Amino acid sequence: MLAAMSPSPSPVEPARIRAARGRDDACPGALRLHTADDGALARVRVPGGLLSSGQALVLADAATALGDGALETTSRGNVQLRGLPADAGAELGARLRAAGLLPSDTHDRVRNIVASPLAGLPGGGPDLRGWVRELDALLQSSEIARALSGRFLFALDDGTGDVAALDADVTLIAQPVGSALLRLGRSADAAPVADPVRAALAAAEAFVGLRSGTWRVCEADPDGALLAGRLGLEPRPLPVLPGTRPAVGAREGALCVGLRFGRATAEQWRLLAAQADELRVTPWRGVVLPGADPAALPALAAAGLRTDPGSAWERATACTGAPGCAKALADVRAEAAAALDATAGPAGRPVHWSGCERRCGHPVGDWVDVLATGDGYRISHQPGNATEVTNQQMAAAVAAARRTT
Ligand code: SF4
């Protein structure tokens, strides 16, 4: 079954659109920087997670020259730079434009497109790079799409169900012979569409006309029925999809490499870029390297990248926490990393550490919730089943909760 994340003002976003949102979605972009406790943060949209090795090097150079020397991948397959000076926007924008990473100032924040990272590779479905490029181009040419929130998400699934499980606003699921199913929000149904990418854009544009101060389809139209009616679609029950995401390690035709909590140093990032002509940033804090040599795995592991599918680090995520976020009650990443390093695999259920009740970046579906309380952590893995532990008790308690069925 499909399983059912203080901004400075944008220099480019028209006042007309800000007013139409009713309230600001506060989502950062490449031009609209977010002011965090560790400096300004820029989020670079990477449609489909697709980066050439040259583009990846541009990002690493920008992180070194302008930021804190590291890169973060997000739950939507985008890339963030942190620790930037408040006035870094102009130089960062120039670097990104020259590399083809900022093709539109006006549509920067709406280019949120995830795609199955193994599409077109052994074990994956059909190649979706054409869909990604077509949808990105159509989005940039749509005046209506400028009004989408920076949180609105398109998912392009190759039929395996991996990104279809990501709670996107508009999901395309590839079917045989070039057709597709279109799913709206969290609907349990999907409709066949003959021109998939144009249908996806039409759904997003229809949402702009439908919503009233909402950012996501699930807020305005929980079962997608209103949008389906406006679009003249006839949804039917979704087929069961495996929904399995690629584990880290070597597989036929690609290497899958994990980043600890989605963060890589510029040196690690350059090492990844040296392995393949194309990098595919996944929504699961990793990178797929098509055509990379499996003999590179030991060097990648020695550099601190994740390559062991049996590690407790698999399916482990954490919010930014202290010192980057003022709301955080703990340095959750450091404490979670220590807990994971102290735990022997296998990993068990997904787990997420949060520095406060907002739980930024938490997974969807079934997961173990580890919440900082100021005195330790509260661990929950079922409704009404919460355990308070000290920092010293946390690693063992999390490991036990992940093994609980
Ligand atoms: S969950 Fe709380 S502490 Fe963590 S990044 Fe979000 S707001 Fe900050």
What's the helical proportion of residues? Answer: 25-40%
Enumerate how many helices there are, as a single number. Answer: 11
Strand order of the largest sheet: 6-7-8-9-10-11
What would CATH call the class of the domain at 316-403? Alpha Beta
What is the number of strand segments?
A: 21
Q: What's the CATH H-level homologous superfamily of the domain at 316-403?
A: Sulfite Reductase Hemoprotein, domain 1
Radius of gyration: 20 Å
Present as ligands are: iron/sulfur cluster
Low-pLDDT segments, ≥5 res: 1-22
The CATH architecture classification of the domain at 316-403 is 2-Layer Sandwich
Biggest sheet overview = 6 strands, mixed
- Report the portion of residues in β strands: 15-25%
Mean pLDDT: 90
- What structural class do the secondary elements suggest? alpha+beta
What is the CA-CA span between the terminal residues? Answer: 18 Å
Label the overall shape: globular
